[in-house]
Structure formats: C-alpha cells, structure tokens
Amino acid sequence: MRDQLHPEEIEPDGDDFLPGLAIDAVIFGFHQNQLKILLLEYRNTGLMALPGGFILTNENLNDAARRVLSERTGLSDIYLEQFYVFGDLNRFDPAPMRAIMAAKGFMPPNNHWLLRRFVSVGYYALVDFTKAVPIPDSLSDSCAWYDLANLPLLMQDHQFIVQKALDTLRTDLDRKLIGFNLLAETFTMADLQSLYETILDQKLHRSGFQRKMLSLGILERLDKHYSGGAHKAPFLYRFIK
Amino acid sequence: MRDQLHPEEIEPDGDDFLPGLAIDAVIFGFHQNQLKILLLEYRNTGLMALPGGFILTNENLNDAARRVLSERTGLSDIYLEQFYVFGDLNRFDPAPMRAIMAAKGFMPPNNHWLLRRFVSVGYYALVDFTKAVPIPDSLSDSCAWYDLANLPLLMQDHQFIVQKALDTLRTDLDRKLIGFNLLAETFTMADLQSLYETILDQKLHRSGFQRKMLSLGILERLDKHYSGGAHKAPFLYRFIK
DNA sequence: TTATTATTGTACCAATTTGTTACAATAATA
DNA sequence: TATTATTGTAACAAATTGGTACAATAATAA
C-alpha cells in the first residue's frame, strides 16, 4: 500500500504508477509450529505495516504483486493469490504516511499523491520460511517475521486486512491444496498435520489426517528420516503436482 | 467498467471519479431453468458489454458496486460479492470505447481519461429475476437478460470475466448459502434443485438433495402449492436466516 | 546388550454421511 | 373413477469419516 517507496518515488507526481491504487501483501510463513507474517517497521515512527507497493503504468497488476513479494523475500515463484479489494473511504488517513515521510526528512504538500485516497488490492502469499530472506524497503528499518498469534499494533486497517487474509487461507486450505507452499521441500506427516492444525486452529485426528492426505494422491513418499528424535523414524514426503 | 457514463461523465477530466479504476458487474438471474446475466448493447456499435461503472471520489468501492447494481436493476439489497481484480495491461484497448463515444457523437482526444488503462474490480450479483427491471444506461440502447449458455460476443475481456464469475459462483454455492438469492420469495424443492443443477451443470439425486437442504436448517416449510401441474402438489419453502 | 520410551504406520471397527431404490400419497386430467 | 406424473419419505447399501488399538521402530537409559 502507501508504504513502500523507493527514494525516487517521493516525487511530486508519482507518474510512474497507477494513481490511487496500491497492493498490500500478507506474506505467510510457518516456523516452529507458528504461523508468521512479514511486517515492516518504519524509521523513527514506530509504525508497523504490511509490505506493499504500487503498480507501474506498464505493469500487470499481478506482476506488481509478484514484484513486491520478490523485493521483500528474495524469492520468485511464490504462491500468491488475490483475496479482497479494500476500498472504503475511512481507510484514507494521511497522518501515518505524513509521519513516515517526515521521518525521512520530506515535508510533502497537502495534496501530495501519497496522501490521497488509495484503493488497495489485498494479496496473500505462502512462502517457505527457511528460504525467504526478509528485506526492508527504503523507508523501513526492518522487515521481519511476527507471530500471527501475537501481532504488534498495525498501521491503518492492516489488522483487518490480515484477518481477512487468514479467513481466506483457512477456506482455501482444503479446496485448493496450498498448504505445502508453507513447508520445506520435504516434510513428515507430523509436520503437515501441525501446519493444518495451526492454520485451522483445531486439533485433527492423526489417523484420519494421514488417510485423507495420502488419498489425495499429491504426496510422494521418500526414504525414512532419522533425525534426533528418540522414536521411530517417520517417512519424508514431497509434494507432487 | 468503462462503459456506463452519464452525459455529464463525458468530460475532459473525469474528476468526479477515481482515476483508472472501474467496476464490472456480472449480474446473475435464473428463469425457466436457465442461468442468465444482464448485458448492455451500445447504440450503433453492436458492442455488448457487462454493466459497470466508476467509483466516485467520495464513495466506498462496495457502495459504488451497489449503486451500479441498483441503477441497472432497480433493486437495492442485492447479494453482491467481489470475485477478482482484472489488472492486466492487455485488456487496455481504447478502440471499443472510442467507437461507443463516437456513436454518441463525441470525438475524444487520444489522451481522454476514458481511453486510458483501467483496472477493473469484478463483482458478481444474484438477483430475483422476477423483481429486477433491466434499465439501460445513457449510452446503451438495451439492457437485457441473456442465456449464460448462449452468450453473444462480448467486448474486451468480458467473456473471461463472466467465466471467472461463474467459477466463483460454483465454488461459493455450497460454502456460503447463496442460491436462494436467485429465487423468488417462495419456491419448491424442485425449483431449488433445478437451480443447483443448472449452476453446477450436473444432475443431482432428488432424495439426497432434499435431505441435504432440509438438514441445513435454513428452509421454512410453508403450505402446499397447487398450481397447474397434474401431479401431487409440492410444499413451498422460504429461506430463513 | 537389553529394557524403556515415545512416536509412527496401519489395521480395524463404529458412527455418520451420502448414494440409490422403492413405494405410498396425491392432484390434476382423461 | 382410473390414469399419470410427481412428491414426500422410508429403507437400505456404499462410502466416508471418527476413533481405538497395536505392532514396529529408533533413540536413550539401564
């Protein structure tokens, strides 16, 4: 959304971008049985926000989202999905953006394009936590993972956007088969079940879960896995298309 | 989308609207066991298009969609849902819009705001066919129902938009309970089953369908219905929230 | 080396849901 | 009054899901 600007973006016109339109990205990761999302923290303001960006005038909307994702995570080929367009008037509040620009030493005029109303397209993304390398944008001093269960206060309506993304992820989890995008290349059945339990926030029965997953025909069983656990070694699986 | 303009909208600036952003509406109805959608036909051009519109600068996005819906159908309180944002560059083709404006006797300059790139938010709506009164906009000479199974050639990417709306309707049909919005206030179980069969494009088993629908607890059974049919009179049902 | 321990893989049965057939009840028509 | 097509529901089979049980196993502890 109105948060990620490269130095060259703080211009009086913003002519390189589609006016009034932005992208907000809820980037999910999974680590130590916790769902996490990427958040930016803005220099000298204490404001925390979702990664986002604008759409170049010669760029497809979905490509702009992919660009934002890749700029914040270093990854390409990310699982990415539109989930909602946030277009209410009451999300228009120039104060946070003005604070961010002021912290950057820029005092914009009141009609600066970044201070006007924005409609924002919400995307959610699923990434392999172990592969993503969070990269702050030019205005933020950190880009890092935060536990979804314990988020800090977010700027504007970003808390609402996160909730809507999570709702969509929950309903998409079974219909589309997307959970795998949050895991590493190979994983155990227990990993997968823990992921599902965390996303859906409910316990699942081990036996039934395994039966259901295997019946989908999207898992390839690999060799046994003998890590530190003092127990029977589980199989490893890989997702197959 | 870039199709509905009142006379006052054909101005050099379009300052009353958010720039570059539009709404396309796929308005579904159901009549004589056929799914139908509303289409506009533009004067003197033969172009057919989805109803659409723009967002006023002081208007919520969803309210703009409701306004478009009410302007084309005369109905308020319509079931309405966002389903996708169409933001590819290749949907930008000024020719059809120029033809529509020319047919209206207006020769716009090449940089006219209506001839530039638009990102369009797709909404689908479900209305009671018997209550909706299709109303053309100021540039079209007809607004009418067309069989989804037998659509004419549509402008730009509108065929694609319709397909995506239908896909969404199909997956939403069971998750949310929205089919009733396409029926009249009261209906028979056969009506409801026919609706489901038409939307999903597959035969369903009468007994199982009835059992499932009744088990949802969202139907109120009314009196018997004795219409023309030379058969046992079916019950009427009403949808309850 | 051998018991201990926690977990894994899978078999098994119960409970529930879904798929299918059957048939009596019924409302108009012949 | 018989005929006809449809409706409402019962009945049962098949499939799916929920839950338990238990042998197999990999490390650790004795």
Automatic annotation (TrEMBL), chains A, B:
It comes from the Bacteria. Keywords: Hydrolase. SUPFAM superfamilies: Nudix (SSF55811), Winged helix' DNA-binding domain (SSF46785). The keyword Iron does not apply. Residues 179-239 form the NrtR DNA-binding winged helix domain. Pfam families: NUDIX (PF00293), WHD_NrtR (PF21906). It comes from Spirosoma arboris. This is NUDIX hydrolase. Coiled coil: none annotated.
